[in-house]
Every structure is written in structure tokens, then in C-alpha cells.
Write a structure and sequence with these properties.
Layout (H helix, E strand, L loop, with lengths): L8 E9 L1 H9 L2 H10 L3 E8 L3 H8 L6 E5 L10 H10 L4 E4 L12 H8 L7 H10 L4 E4 L6 H12 L6 H16 L20 H13 L3 H10 L24 H14 L1
Parallel strand pairs: 1-2, 2-3, 3-4, 4-5
Length: 270
């Protein structure tokens, strides 16, 4: 508060909670500390931001009465992290939502031409960013939408989207649903990032390898696979030892070993 030059903080987040960090919060009795600060008036609204699977989200949001929470949510990530189920649970519990990644880091502004044409056919003038932002804003329990902007034109476009905000109408919702369907039909496999296959005995990050592979295919962005794959370092698909332990645990019955081999081969060809 000294650094901020304030006497209290309006909205205070326990930031980027996942299963491990949430356990740390419990082990170190962090909630006792922030709840005391809230009673003293130094924190007005207490919440958390989240990056993990739905079961972890459910555990955290039902643990206590939160004032708000922040999740990743966009029309492509409805089954990832908190997703649709997390949105519905927050709404049921009357926990207002702040949304991050509404345009998926800019990904939803770089759709393949045949997919963007679906949206352009409905409204030729609307930017792809505006479609993504309006989809999120059409959810009534969404109170704040965060959008990273890197140019003045993007600022103007986003302001125009919200100046006279209109939720998606029936035709527009159907267009977005068609975009979702087409994109998801291009998945390489049916990995849902449930992580039942983890931990891998040899340190391979199986869900992340599949995430980069699927997203690169769905969005026709091979550089997404290359960049994501390189970021995995020692957890890359190429280090798989073909032990098969993961396949016994996969509820989707994915041929994990074969698909990891395919990923490594695709990256080499890029």
C-alpha cells in the first residue's frame, strides 16, 4: 500500500491459483491473513485468479464465500481450465467474474480465412476481436473483461465494441457456434487436458504437447506448435520412452505414444 500510495485495495487477488498453489495457501494459512486485512478495511473485495482444471476450480470456489474471481474464458476455451462449467458454477454461487484471455492472446483475431468468412458473412464490418469480446460480454455474470492491446487501433476498436455494447443475437450466436464446430473438427486428437495421464515417469508434459499440436492444427498456425514445443524443453514429445503407462490411465483412450511420436516428427518437418 505504501508503494501504491493508497490506504486500502479495492480488489485483491490470490493470483494464478492452481492445485499446488492452493495447497500452499491452505498450508500457510494465507486466508487467515487476508481475511484479517479485509476486516481491517485494507482489502475491500477478496478474490482469486485461476489456471488449472475444473475440479480444482470447484474446490477453490466452494471453499469459502468469495467476492469475485478471475478466469480464462473465450469461445474456443469452453472446455479448458474453468470453462463453461466454471462459469456456470460461479454464476450459481453469485460470484462475479473477471475474464482474462477473451481473445486467447490474440489468437481469435488470426483465424484462417475460411473460418473468419463465417463471421464476415454475418457482419462484414465487425472485427474478429469484437466477435470474441462480445461473446464473452454476452454472459451476464461477466463484470470485467481484460484485453491486452498493442496498438492505438486496437484500443479504438475495443472502445467501439463496448461504447454501445450489444449482446450477440441469435444469428450471431449461431455463427460463433459454427466457428467453434469447424475449429474443433480440426483437432488432431481428443485430449481434454484432464491430466489423468500425468505425471509421466520420464517427465513428458503430455497435455501441453497435445495442446500445442491441436491448437496449431485447429487454427492453421504451425508456428504455434513450433514455439510451444520449444518452450517445453525436457518435457518434449521426442523424449517419450514409449512405456505406455499413460495410455492405461487415459479416459479418452488416446494412442498417446503414437501421437507423441507424430508431434516430434511434425516439429522436425517445420
Amino acid at each position: 500500500m505504501d508503494r501504491l500510495g493508497v490506504d486500502y485495495v479495492d480488489f485483491y487477488l490470490l493470483h494464478a491459483l492452481d492445485k499446488k498453489k492452493w495447497q500452499t495457501v491452505l498450508d500457510l494459512h494465507v486466508l487467515d491473513v487476508v481475511e484479517k486485512l479485509q476486516k481491517q478495511g485494507k482489502i475491500k473485495h477478496l478474490g482469486f485468479s485461476f489456471h488449472d482444471t475444473y475440479p480444482v476450480f470447484e474446490e477453490i470456489i466452494t471453499y469459502r464465500s468469495w467476492d469475485f474471481c478471475q478466469i480464462q474464458y473465450n469461445y474456443l476455451d469452453t472446455d479448458i481450465q474453468a470453462g463453461d462449467r466454471g462459469y456456470a458454477l460461479a454464476e450459481k454461487l453469485n460470484v462475479p467474474l473477471v475474464i482474462m484471455e477473451p481473445i486467447k492472446g490474440g489468437t481469435l483475431t488470426r483465424l484462417p480465412e475460411d473460418i473468419s468468412a463465417i463471421l464476415k458473412a454475418v457482419d462484414p464490418q465487425a472485427s474478429l476481436a469484437s466477435w470474441a469480446l462480445r461473446w464473452v460480454g454476452s454472459h451476464k455474470n461477466v463484470k470485467v473483461i481484460l484485453s491486452g492491446m498493442s496498438s492505438y487501433d486496437q484500443v479504438k476498436d475495443n472502445l467501439a465494441t463496448f461504447k454501445d455494447f450489444k449482446p450477440l443475437n441469435k444469428q450471431e450466436k449461431e455463427a460463433v457456434e459454427e466457428v467453434q464446430r469447424v475449429i474443433k473438427s480440426r483437432q488432431k486428437n481428443g485430449c481434454t487436458a484432464c491430466a489423468y495421464c500425468m505425471p509421466c515417469p520420464f517427465g513428458i508434459n503430455i497435455p501441453k504437447n497435445f495442446q500445442y499440436w491441436n491448437e496449431a492444427s485447429m487454427l492453421n498456425q504451425p508456428e504455434r506448435l513450433k514455439d510451444g514445443y520449444e518452450s517445453l524443453k525436457d518435457a518434449k514429445a521426442e523424449f517419450c520412452k514409449q512405456c505406455g503407462a499413460c495410455e492405461k490411465l487415459c479416459p479418452q483412450h488416446i494412442s498417446i505414444r503414437e501421437d507423441l511420436k507424430r508431434i516430434a516428427e511434425e516439429v522436425k518437418s517445420l
